């Protein structure tokens, strides 16, 4: 199919290419009769402007990139859904990149996004090793907001949840149910959210003289939870409760326990983290630490556009939300 060009429109309307450009970008500068003639030619020829070329000439696109740890995790789906309406209302479009919890893959995404001069970036980094790459984007006046991650010493806006407190909530709930040995399943520990949730859990266990056993996993997915349970069940003095670093891990743990005939919560209680929709719909509805997923995305997008609008006058903000425990059947029994 032959693509109609701006020259074709100019020829059909009997005007210069510059006049066609003005009709598209500065219509108030073109006489009404001429403007009508150009618009009629555009309609007749089915011309569609090459917006990407125009953006490249301007040095900036309308794309807001969101880089997530795992696109298969419904937590990140909800974060994107929270951000997208605000981006669209500002005339932008969202593109989602999946790092797969892989630093090298994340860096490839960042390099391409830098080349494309995206309008802005929302990112949940794999770990702190990507800081220099994120700074490179900032150096090209691409604003960056960290999502589900505190900014720490980095000069960026951020939205996060107090994951240490979230870990404490989970452990306190299990201790109050009478559990004296708790397992933590999740990893890798290089992911700050995992480390913070474990730290909160460990604090409560130490304060309550409860034994804590950690089962480190290579990822935060269904399979990781199921495999960790296989390891846990091999222990003679196995834990009576499990706190998982996210709900996907918890759902995998639930399946693993069920496959081995271990009753939940009668023989082993489970608490997840995130409170994705699947948690409440599980065969045994899952207790979970709830994060405001959509609000994280919405707030991150708002911080991004605030920075774009304010430019060098912008002051970075670090917004921290508080999690809450949602108790369901997976922890319903007291020992």
Automatic annotation (TrEMBL):
MF-aspect GO terms: DNA-binding transcription factor activity; transcription cis-regulatory region binding
Key words, A-Z: DNA-binding, Transcription, Transcription regulation
Tagged with keyword Transferase: no
Chain ranges of the HTH lacI-type domain: 4-58
Database matches in SMART domains: HTH_LACI
Entry annotated with the keyword DNA-binding: yes
Highest taxon of the lineage: Bacteria
InterPro entries assigned to the protein according to its UniProt record, in alphabetical order: HTH_LacI, LacI/GalR-like_sensor, Lambda_DNA-bd_dom_sf, Peripla_BP_I
Protein name per its UniProtKB record: Substrate-binding domain-containing protein
Source species: Glycomyces albidus
